[in-house]
């Protein structure tokens, strides 16, 4: 927290400085065709000879260098700053208060040094920890700062190696493949012919898919080999800010040309260059600006927000603890008061007593002083060290959670990641679990299952069979397939790096490559064909569809064929566009391990392709008569086309002509590399669709910024120019591409989106009656199919298109360009523009994508439900899909009654909820009546009917607004609730409602960005490493890789952590109360004067050292019930806590026991020594020793496991005490003034009486606890626990 | 929160270049080690405390404690102890007048003698104690009021005692040696014991004043200021404590080596007692021969030089004669306690046995249908 604040301040300061500097007069920009920027705060960078060059240079020099300091302290500031920060802790202030109190002479209880020990120990431990942390930061800073990067040097006119920290704003930097970017640089040159550069942002946001960056366009830079020497530009851009997503500015070339800059041109620090040989850029923001933002604010804010910022998640246990500590404070004050009053009265009875030092002091004042003295003496009563101990224990618990093999996913090679350190015990008290569906319950590994085009369903029967087989096989071979999978992963990893290596080192030694190739082919390839997820992507095409599609390319000679009759050209057209849309309407990146795809080869092909395109256009226009206006001779045209195609195909085989030569080569290459194409998609749906298209030989082969290379069936590779991409947006729920159609040459909008989004945007049928009929028929059929798919649990996407007339396009283009060039509210305008375009669409078809359930999901859900956790599913999917998945994962049993709440209006909604509530109540009564009747009849009742509430997003909204109580009551009596079509906000609202209203512990689990708010709101947020980036993981408390891990995480670790921590807290309080009471009882025999019978060193160290480690071990390692039992008997999860008495009772019972033990521990020695010549310290010696033994034995009784670690720690603790006091009694001559420890312990321990007293005391004190435990375990243990425990035996 | 922030940094530093992406071998598995410790599978002794498992312990404790208790009780009973209160509260008491008139300011000493009869002979070495009651030697301020460095012979502490000694730090402008309230309140009654023969003659009983202090105190902790054998010179420039009659180097006129800080009576007094009623070893009466008892039964006279006023705070003074055993002085409590606890444990063992049988059969019978 403090660090966060500090960072923020630091950055604010920084920005303020930058702003001051940014106030350099801007050059007038009359000659510019781009409107002047209205940047409030800007920075200017210029290179080359400009007017006022020196001035600018100075400015540039004054910008922060690239050196980064993430360390909190320097050598000088460490002690003061660290101390300052540490004293923000309440506990340290308490210790400080005690120290100061001890400095008051009349109150002073111990030596001044001794009271400082606790504080010093705590401060030192934390300071050492901080120092080490800071040192690690320093080392890593140093490492980063000293990395070498190629920077252009004007004097030598060459790139020379410079250290990162020496890089300055305005420097030209050359980077190669796999280099990490040292500063925020503007991309000026890329070896890629299209001026593209690929970066991986894994260091920033954890996303591993490659992103494209475009070199600055509109300047005469492209093409030429870049030479910084002859390069004069001026860059004006906004001042550093923390928004990673935007960057605005412009660049001015000496020729006067100006170009706008945006995020696409900026390479952010600490990203990695991939798949691009060489990149040159100019540094715009160096070092501290983005370095701080990224390394600290970017990550830090994210991490902060997640870890302690807005969602500081307090555990219920700690709330209880605070209550208990309050009671401790009360006890302490009472004890001190009793002593103070007692001292007053005691003092009153004496006159001229020779042992009274300050005889004249009025009793009231003396009592007052004694009160404060006692506060110091009894300071241990308030278990401040408990907070530190809890932190340590939680760290230990997390260590074990992270090291659990059962939570390790071998497939993905990832462990559970504990991001929040303070809420492990919350895992043990979960009552409600909110789960996302996609990617959480399911794999989010999308597989194309079936589709419907032109209103005709293609069931893809074989594909379905294959998927089922695959699933069965996977389950069967679960054990052995794991290694194969990881091998696959290895392969893909190595593939990627390999491709990079080659692109950067094109003339690399062949030996190394061939070696790796051999390894790949020998080891991995045969295996991958069996189980690798890539296999799942491969789609077996539907024969019908293949047939129809082949009409496009196959010899149209068979015109009289039956299939031709049934397949109208319109349908064919639909089918083609459908697959074209699948292939190109996405943001999928293509890479091939064999060769880097820079679209380099297509470039050389393009000329010949253009020729082909012309030919195609000529003969295919009639075929697409539905689209194009001029289609006078339809049949003839199509014949002509088929002829031509036939001809061209013949020419393929017969003789090479100039054009076809290249085509064939390309075709050959296609065959070779076809299987090697690798798609990197942002969302798995896209990848699945691209794979599906590939199965129909509509293969996406490459992508550049403004064009894609696709293979079309029978036609071959084609370049499709991407005019625009209207990216996916969760509000629009669709994405579109605007392309020039490769076959017709028209401008076409291809849209892909959720059915709800698309269906509303469809064109109202125009034109002929027949067309209208077909259209509505298609729409009806498709809707029917969509519903069917959803019922099957498939994800549906609708594909639509729109043909734009040239004028129409140009009108829209103007708007779009305006929107693009706008700087202030570009996003909004772009959205508006996109919506303007996506209207009047024509529905092509729909796809059904299968998202398989993750393994063991039904078992996990069942197990969690048996553990008494209510499982809710909150999904953005359709209701049918959601319900279906719920069936599949056994959230709903066939016998369950589903209550569906879908309302059209608010009032309906409230009424419906009331109705349902009544219904549920009635049926519950019926059930209970039936049950009693059955009980009377002696019949065992069958399966209980339970209710499942299904509610959709819109209704949910009204419910949350108005009828939340009603909803709560209703949901309370339901076994599960499914919220579908819910937005991220609704998800979090539902979680908050349950958390706040029912005051129960909630857990939310999800994998995507849409689950972030829910994860943050819930008491425990769990992110699943999925296919959708890292946002969920970043905001989560725990990150797991499979849903099934929840079971072990909650049932085993949650239970353990909770019971360990609860027991440890009790033990800690017990320990303190017990020990402090010994001192309190002594006050009755020393005139309530605040004397102690122990050496003050021993007194302080007793708590700090001798008895501090065993509770920690107890809190980290104790196992009340073995893991297997907890997993098998999930009812234990709640039953265990239910069987225990409520917390306040347990607390008071513990305190009572502590009182009893301290009484025994004090009065047995008292009676043994009363009246004898026992000295003060000699009296304390057996008391201390037996207190130690009692405290340790108490722990042995209370703990459930004893391993060698426990035994070791216990022995060492006891041993260290005896060693210490013996040494102390030998060596301490004058080290401890006011007490006289020399020889005391030695003498005591040489006498048998000491051992006799200790034995009696210990046995008497511990006996009741032992008896209680034994009786409790024998008589009052729940049957469940007993079975669990018995099985252990 | 620290951890997350530096993960980021480490990542930043991690991809240090193309080298780290070399090949498949560079990818390190994050798989946790499958060790018993990390997987929390350490072999553990699991003490499930039930009546059945606990009852042997109770029996064993009972069986061990009862004999020990009996032994302790017998031992304690064998110890001979005689105690006599000579405070002089009652008018009939011989020391009444001394007690009434005497205060710290008196210049002349008051003596009185008390007659008593020992019913039984004391066979072994007899320890002679003085006992004080209602004397809070453990009062916090009192306990602190001393300077250990001074007592250890530190010359600088001798001339400049610790602040803790206030208000008994200096008197008449000179530092007090030994300073502090403890030293100031040194018990200064002199007790002399006479055996009255059958023919009425008083035979003085030799009281050894050496060996009453702990060895460590006498030889390690307490030291006279060094450099000079002559204590008078060594203590030059210091003043005696306010209540004292004689300076510290004249405490024992009979034995030169028993003077100064290493005077054993002084050392014994400086070990503050734990409880307000205490006794302190005064003299030892060594056994002379094996044939005669150390103290034969008969009449004795205790001569007291009454210097120590206790009536002002309701205190009492006693003289105690006691033999000791391996377990110290006479104390019946431990024996009784051991016997009691042992019996309780034994009894609880029986109860547990019954419970164990009852529940065990119930549980096993309940288990059968399952």
UniProtKB/TrEMBL annotation, chain B:
Bias type Polar residues, positions: 150-162
Organism ancestry: Eukaryota, Metazoa, Chordata, Craniata, Vertebrata
Protein name: Cell cycle control protein
Topology with respect to the bilayer: Multi-pass membrane protein
Pfam families attached to this UniProt entry: CDC50
Signal peptide (residue range): none
GO cellular component: apical plasma membrane; endoplasmic reticulum; Golgi apparatus; transport vesicle membrane
Organism: Hippocampus comes (Tiger tail seahorse)
PANTHER family: CELL CYCLE CONTROL PROTEIN 50, CELL CYCLE CONTROL PROTEIN 50A
Domain of life: Eukaryota
Region (Disordered), start-end ranges: 1-31, 146-170
Similarity comment text for this entry: Belongs to the CDC50/LEM3 family.
Coiled-coil parts of chain: none
GO biological process, one term: phospholipid translocation
UniProt KW keywords: Cell membrane, Cytoplasmic vesicle, Disulfide bond, Glycoprotein, Golgi apparatus, Lipid transport, Membrane, Transmembrane, Transmembrane helix, Transport
InterPro entries per record: CDC50/LEM3_fam
Transmembrane segment boundaries: 48-74, 333-355
Location of this chain's protein in the cell: Apical cell membrane; Cytoplasmic vesicle, Secretory vesicle membrane; Golgi apparatus; Membrane
């Amino acid at each position: 927290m403090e660090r966060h604040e500090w960072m923020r301040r630091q950055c604010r300061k920084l920005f303020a400085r930058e702003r001051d500097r940014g106030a350099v007069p801007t050059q007038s920009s009359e000659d510019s065709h781009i409107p002047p920027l209205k940047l409030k705060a800007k920075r200017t960078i210029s290179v080359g000879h400009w007017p006022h060059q020196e001035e600018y240079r100075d400015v540039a020099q004054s910008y922060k260098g690239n050196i980064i300091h993430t360390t909190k302290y320097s050598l000088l500031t460490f002690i003061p700053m660290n101390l300052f920060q540490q004293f923000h802790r309440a506990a340290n202030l308490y210790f400080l208060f005690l120290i100061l109190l001890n400095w008051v002479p009349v109150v002073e209880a111990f030596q001044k040094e001794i009271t400082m020990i606790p504080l010093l120990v705590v401060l030192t431990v934390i300071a050492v920890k901080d120092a080490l942390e800071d040192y690690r930061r320093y080392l890593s800073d140093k490492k980063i700062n000293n990395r070498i990067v190629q920077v252009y040097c004007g004097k030598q006119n060459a790139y020379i190696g410079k250290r990162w920290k020496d890089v300055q704003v305005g420097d030209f930097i050359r980077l190669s493949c796999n280099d990490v970017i040292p500063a925020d640089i503007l991309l000026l040159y890329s070896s890629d012919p299209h001026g593209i550069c690929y970066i991986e942002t894994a260091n920033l946001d954890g996303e591993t898919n490659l992103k494209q960056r475009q070199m600055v366009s509109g300047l005469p830079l492209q093409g030429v080999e870049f030479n910084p020497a002859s390069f004069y530009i001026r860059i004006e851009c906004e001042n550093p800010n923390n928004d990673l997503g935007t960057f605005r500015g412009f660049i001015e070339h000496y020729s006067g040309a100006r170009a706008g800059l945006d995020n696409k041109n900026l390479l952010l620090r600490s990203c990695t260059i991939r798949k691009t040989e060489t990149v040159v850029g100019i540094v715009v923001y160096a070092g501290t600006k983005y370095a701080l933002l990224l390394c600290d604010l970017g990550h830090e804010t994210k991490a902060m927000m997640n870890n302690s910022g807005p969602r500081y998640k307090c555990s219920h246990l700690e709330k209880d603890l605070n209550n208990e500590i309050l009671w401790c404070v009360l006890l302490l004050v009472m004890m001190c008061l009793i002593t103070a009053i007692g001292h007053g009265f005691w003092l009153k009875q004496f006159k001229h007593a020779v042992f009274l030092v300050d005889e004249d002091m009025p009793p009231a004042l003396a009592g007052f002083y004694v009160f404060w003295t006692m506060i110091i003496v009894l300071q241990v009563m308030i278990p401040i060290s408990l907070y530190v101990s809890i932190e340590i224990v939680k760290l230990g618990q997390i260590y074990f959670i992270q090291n659990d093999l059962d939570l390790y996913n071998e497939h993905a090679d990832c462990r559970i990641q504990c991001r929040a350190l303070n809420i492990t015990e919350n895992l043990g008290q979960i009552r409600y679990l909110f789960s996302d569906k996609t990617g959480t319950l399911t794999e989010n590994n999308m597989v194309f299952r079936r589709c419907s085009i032109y209103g005709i369903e293609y069931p893809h029967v074989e594909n379905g069979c294959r998927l089922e087989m695959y699933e069965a096989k996977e389950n069967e071979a679960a054990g052995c397939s794991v290694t194969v999978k990881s091998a696959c992963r290895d392969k893909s990893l190595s593939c990627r790096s390999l491709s990079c290596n080659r692109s950067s080192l094109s003339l690399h030694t062949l030996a190394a490559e061939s070696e790796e190739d051999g390894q790949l082919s020998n080891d991995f390839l045969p295996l991958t064909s069996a189980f690798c997820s890539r296999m799942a992507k491969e789609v077996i095409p539907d024969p019908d569809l293949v047939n129809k599609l082949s009409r496009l390319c196959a010899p149209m000679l068979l015109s009289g064929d039956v299939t031709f009759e049934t397949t109208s050209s319109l349908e064919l057209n639909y089918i083609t566009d459908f697959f074209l849309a699948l292939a190109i309407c996405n943001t999928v990146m293509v890479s091939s391990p064999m060769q880097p795809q820079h679209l380099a080869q297509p470039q050389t092909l393009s000329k010949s392709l253009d020729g082909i395109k012309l030919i195609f256009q000529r003969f295919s226009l009639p075929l697409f008569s539905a689209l194009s206006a001029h289609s006078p001779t339809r049949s003839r045209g199509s014949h002509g086309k088929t002829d031509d195609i036939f001809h061209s195909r013949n020419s393929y085989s017969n003789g090479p002509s100039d054009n076809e030569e290249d085509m064939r080569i390309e075709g050959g290459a296609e065959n070779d590399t076809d299987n090697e194409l690798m798609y990197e998609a942002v969302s798995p749906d896209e990848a699945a669709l691209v794979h599906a298209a590939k199965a129909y030989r509509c293969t996406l082969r490459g992508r550049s910024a403004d064009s894609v290379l696709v293979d079309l069936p029978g036609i071959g590779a084609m370049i499709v120019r991407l005019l625009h991409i209207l990216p996916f947006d969760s509000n629009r729920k669709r994405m579109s591409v605007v392309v020039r159609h490769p076959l017709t040459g028209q401008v076409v909008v291809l849209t892909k989106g959720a059915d709800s989004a698309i269906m509303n945007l469809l064109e109202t049928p125009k034109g002929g009656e027949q067309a209208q009929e077909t259209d509505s028929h298609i729409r009806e059929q498709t809707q029917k199919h969509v519903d069917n798919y959803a019922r099957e649990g498939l994800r549906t996407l609708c594909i639509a298109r729109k043909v734009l007339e040239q004028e129409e396009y140009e009108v829209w283009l103007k708007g779009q360009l305006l929107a693009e060039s706008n700087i202030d509210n570009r996003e909004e305008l772009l959205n508006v523009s996109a919506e303007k375009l996506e209207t009047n669409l024509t529905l092509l078809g729909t796809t059904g994508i299968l998202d398989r359930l993750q393994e063991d999901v039904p078992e996990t859900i069942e197990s969690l439900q048996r553990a008494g956790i209510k499982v809710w599913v909150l999904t953005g999917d359709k209701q049918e899909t959601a319900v279906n998945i719920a069936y599949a994962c056994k959230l709903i049993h066939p016998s369950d009654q589903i209550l569906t709440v879908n309302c059209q209006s608010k009032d309906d909604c409230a009424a419906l909820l009331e109705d349902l509530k009544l219904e549920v109540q009635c049926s519950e009564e019926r059930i209970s009546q039936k049950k009693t009747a059955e009980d009377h009849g002696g019949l065992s009742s069958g399966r209980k009917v339970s209710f499942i509430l299904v509610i959709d997003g819109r209704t949910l909204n009204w419910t949350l607004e108005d009828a939340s109580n009603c909803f709560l009551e209703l949901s309370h009596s339901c076994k599960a609730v499914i919220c579908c079509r819910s937005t991220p906000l609704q998800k979090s609202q539902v979680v908050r409602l349950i958390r706040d209203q029912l005051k129960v512990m909630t857990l939310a689990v999800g994998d995507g960005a849409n689950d972030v708010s829910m994860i943050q709101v819930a008491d425990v947020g769990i992110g699943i490493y999925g296919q959708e980036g890292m946002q969920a993981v970043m905001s989560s408390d725990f990150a797991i890789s499979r849903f099934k891990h929840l079971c072990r995480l909650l049932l085993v670790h949650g239970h353990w952590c909770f019971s360990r921590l609860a027991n440890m807290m009790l033990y800690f309080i017990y320990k303190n109360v017990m020990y402090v009471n010994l001192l309190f009882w002594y006050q009755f025999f020393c005139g309530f004067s605040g004397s102690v019978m122990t050496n003050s060193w021993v007194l302080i160290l007793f708590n700090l050292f001798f008895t501090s480690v065993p509770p920690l071990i107890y809190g980290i390692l104790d196992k009340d019930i073995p893991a297997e039992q907890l997993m098998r008997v999930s009812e234990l999860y709640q039953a265990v806590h239910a069987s225990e008495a409520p917390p306040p009772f347990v607390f008071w019972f513990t305190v009572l026991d502590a009182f009893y033990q301290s009484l025994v521990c004090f009065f047995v020695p008292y009676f043994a020594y009363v009246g004898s010549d026992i000295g003060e310290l000699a009296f304390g010696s057996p008391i201390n020793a037996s207190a130690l033994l009692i405290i340790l034995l108490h722990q042995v009784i209370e703990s459930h496991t004893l391993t060698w670690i426990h035994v070791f720690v216990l022995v060492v603790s006891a041993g260290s005490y005896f060693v210490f006091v013996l040494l102390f009694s030998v060596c301490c001559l004058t080290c401890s003034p006011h007490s006289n420890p020399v020889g005391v312990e030695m003498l005591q321990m040489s006498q048998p009486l000491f051992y006799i007293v200790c034995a009696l005391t210990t046995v008497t004190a511990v006996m009741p606890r032992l008896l209680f435990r034994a009786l409790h375990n024998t008589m009052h243990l729940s049957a469940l626990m007993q079975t669990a425990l018995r099985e252990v035996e | 929160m620290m951890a997350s922030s530096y993960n980021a940094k480490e990542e930043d530093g991690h991809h240090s270049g193309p080298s780290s992406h070399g090949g498949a071998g560079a990818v390190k598995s994050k798989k946790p080690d499958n060790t018993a410790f990390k997987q929390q599978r350490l072999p553990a002794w699991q003490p499930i405390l039930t009546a059945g498992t606990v009852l042997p312990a109770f029996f064993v404790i009972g069986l061990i404690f009862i004999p020990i208790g009996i032994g302790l009780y017998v031992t304690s009973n064998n110890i001979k102890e005689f105690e006599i209160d000579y405070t002089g509260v009652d008018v009939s008491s011989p020391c009444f007048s001394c007690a009434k008139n005497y205060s710290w300011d008196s210049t002349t000493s008051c003596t009185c003698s008390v007659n008593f009869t020992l019913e039984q002979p004391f066979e072994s070495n007899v320890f002679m104690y003085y006992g004080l009651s209602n004397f809070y030697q453990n009062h916090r301020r009192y306990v602190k009021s001393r300077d250990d460095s001074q007592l250890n012979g530190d010359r600088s502490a001798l001339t400049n005692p610790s602040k803790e000694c206030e208000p008994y730090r200096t008197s008449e402008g000179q530092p007090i040696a030994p300073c502090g309230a403890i030293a100031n309140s040194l018990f200064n009654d002199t007790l002399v014991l006479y055996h009255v023969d059958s023919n009425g003659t008083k035979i003085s009983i030799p009281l050894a004043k050496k060996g009453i202090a702990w060895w460590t105190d006498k030889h390690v902790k307490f030291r006279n200021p060094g450099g000079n054998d002559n204590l008078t010179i060594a203590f030059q420039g210091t003043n005696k404590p306010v209540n004292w009659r004689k300076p510290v180097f004249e405490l024992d006129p009979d034995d030169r080596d028993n003077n100064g800080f290493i005077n054993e009576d002084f050392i014994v007094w400086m070990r503050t007692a734990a409880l307000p009623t205490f006794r302190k070893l005064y003299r030892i009466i060594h056994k002379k021969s094996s044939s005669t008892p150390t103290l034969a039964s008969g009449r004795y006279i205790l001569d007291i030089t009454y210097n120590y006023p206790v009536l002002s705070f309701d205190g009492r003074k006693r003289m105690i004669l006691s033999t000791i055993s391996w377990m110290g002085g006479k104390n019946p409590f431990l024996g009784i306690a051991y016997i009691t606890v042992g019996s309780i444990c034994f009894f609880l063992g029986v109860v547990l046995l019954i419970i164990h049988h009852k529940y065990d059969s119930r549980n096993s019978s309940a288990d059968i249908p399952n």
